[in-house]
Design a protein that fits this description.
Layout lengths: L1 H31 L4 E10 L2 E5 L26 E3 L10 E2 L2 E3 L12 E10 L4 E3 L5 E15 L4 E34 L11 E2 L9 E2 L4 E34 L4 E25 L6 E26 L4 E11 L2 E6 L2 E6 L3 E11 L1
Antiparallel strand pairs: 1-8, 1-18, 2-7, 2-17, 3-5, 4-11, 5-10, 6-9, 8-9, 9-12, 12-13, 13-14, 14-15, 15-18, 16-17
Amino acid sequence: MNKHIIGWRTPVTGALLLATAVSAEQNLETYQYSTNRVTVSLRFGLNIKGKFKGTGGSLASGAAGSQQTPRGDKYNYDDGYVLTDISGNAGNQSWYWGYDNASQVNASGANTIDFHRDTALGVPNQNSGGDTPYVGAEIAYNWELGKDDWRHIHYGLEAAINFMPINFRSGGLYNATLSRLTDTYSYTDGTTPPGAPYQGSFGGAGFVINTPPVGSTTVTVPGATFLAQQDFDANLWGFRLGPYLEMPLSQKWSLHLSGGFALGLLDSQANWRETITLPSAGGATTKSGSGSDFSALYGYYVSLTAAYQLSERWAIEGGVQFQDLGTYEHNFAGRLAELNMKNSLFIQVGVSYSF
């Protein structure tokens, strides 16, 4: 009797195990019909840090002015420049000079021109902006090249385009001490300098002034306040391309791993405004500037995503992506804006359609 029971139990058990295996295989095979895939995702950027360097510009200790000569050299004074001309300032004279205001002429005596440089002592050289999450969007396409039938692993090529606006603000109000340097240069008696504003050229020839300065004074005014306001706005268009692996965990769940080349196109603009106010109604000095730039950034990415099948074609996805696009820097009229994207993290949530 027992032998008969054992006799029919063995094939039945084998049949059940075979049916279970076939069912599991069919579950995974069902998922394998999802080959090429388009995914639309929301993209949340983290650990993207921005800062402005050179806060204070010519008001920061040791900095030069943000204006430029016709040759592209920076002013070495707030209201002008006296630089070395093509002759090497032969005869202790230079025609590579310029000034902004008529009041600078003869302010310290006959046949002289004054040049000034204000320095705000106690002002931080840089201000960091916020690194709060940035929100963007992405469209990705997965093109299946093949699959491993035994392990049920799909592989192929992934391409994506994304967009994310990035902006940060920095600055603040600081206590400062104003230090004003005045350098006085002379010119030949009986001559008249060109009217302000004037910019002499490096190659000459032109009106010459005598070098070095015939006098230099520094006046220090404590108790000043310094207000810095700096804004950076950019649109980041991103592209990525690389291989992917897709592993079904069940009929509903799967994991996607990808990595490869990343490209970012950054269209940016920045503006800044800084004001130093002297104590006891001593007046205020305001400087401002702005600029724009377009740059390409290169790097790599690694992404891990989990997907849940809602139907044969539709799925929802969520994952994390690490991306390194390096560090972006650009000088916007005397202020250096920096955007650190070396360790960026992106959280993505989206929906995909397979075909």
